[in-house]
Design goal:
The chain is built from 7 helices and 17 strands. It has helices spanning about 5-25, 45-60, 80, 95-100, 175-180, 195-200, 215-230; strands at about 35, 45, 70, 85-95, 105-115, 115-125, 130-135, 140-145, 150-155, 160-165, 190, 210, 215, 235, 240, 250, 255-260. The radius of gyration is 17 Å and the shape is globular. It starts with a helix and ends in a 9-residue tail after the last strand.
Length: about 270
């Protein structure tokens, strides 16, 4: 499957517009952001909901034949979705905790899945106006800005000693993450929240990100498509193979995201 350039441009423009809606809420006083708690005890804000509703409408208009799985929607039963040939996997506001902390490190994340593997992704960080996108349908990935007028090809450059690790809700990595990270040949650690980390690895700004603990398929789909398209990998840490999608339960196990050649350094 491939998008024509016009369709892809429409999708990217929709991610930018969703980012604008998020920023409108971001500018409100905290009391007006309408933070709620979901069944899984995670927070959801007015910004999550506005971005979700807008992107559902846009994707249904642009690609009406492709079903959508969104973090903020009820999950379709596995007996139905296991038959999907293609589907969108959407996180309308990735990094809600970072959004609530007002540290700017949040994004909109959208991946296109073929079977059980992501083939295209778009990650837009509205505060920074950074857009990362691409996948195997291009055999390339790119970075652009909110104008979408010019793009730069990305390459997950070979290991150069940098290190990217996750920011967690308490700003401290899990002890199991520290054990892994301390055993790697790194020179620098970079703190960053949300799926922006995948974009930084795709851009060659860091080499590896290890995540210990719970993540969901919508947290990784877009980033995996982008990183793989420019030479990197996103692996299940247990069996060291690419993360697979549309599982009966959409939870990922521990994983690595890394640039070219770094697999030789993994434990």
């Amino acid at each position: 499957m491939k998008f024509d350039p016009h369709t892809e441009q429409q999708i990217l423009a929709s991610l930018v517009e969703a980012g604008k809606k998020i920023l409108e809420v971001y500018a409100l006083p905290e009391v007006q952001q309408q933070v709620k708690t979901k069944k899984d005890k995670s927070p959801v804000t007015l910004a999550d909901e506005l971005s979700h509703e807008y992107l559902l409408d846009q994707l249904a208009r642009i690609t009406p034949d492709i079903p959508i799985i969104s973090e903020e929607a009820d999950l379709v039963d596995y007996e139905e979705r296991k038959n999907y040939d293609y589907f969108w996997l959407l996180d309308p506001l990735d990094g809600t905790h970072q959004f609530m902390k007002r540290n700017d490190q949040f994004c909109v994340s959208l991946g296109l899945i073929e079977g059980d593997h992501p083939i295209w992704g778009g990650i837009y960080a509205p505060v920074f106006e950074d857009m990362y996108y691409g996948g195997s349908m291009h055999q390339a990935a790119y970075k652009t800005d909110a104008s979408l007028s010019e793009k730069t090809a990305l390459e997950a450059s070979a290991f150069n000693g940098k290190m990217l690790m996750s920011i967690r809700s308490n700003n401290r990595p899990h002890k199991s993450e520290l054990k892994i990270l301390n055993g790697l040949p790194i020179k620098k650690q970079i703190n960053m929240g949300s799926a922006i980390k995948f974009g930084m690895i795709a851009a060659g700004e860091a080499n590896v990100y290890y995540r210990h603990g719970k993540s969901m398929e919508w947290d990784t789909a877009a980033g995996q498509a982008i990183v793989e398209a420019c030479g990197g990998q996103v692996w299940d840490a247990k069996d060291k193979s690419p993360i697979r999608y549309n599982k009966p339960e959409l939870e990922n196990t521990h994983f690595y995201c890394f640039s070219k050649g770094f697999e030789d350094h993994l434990p």
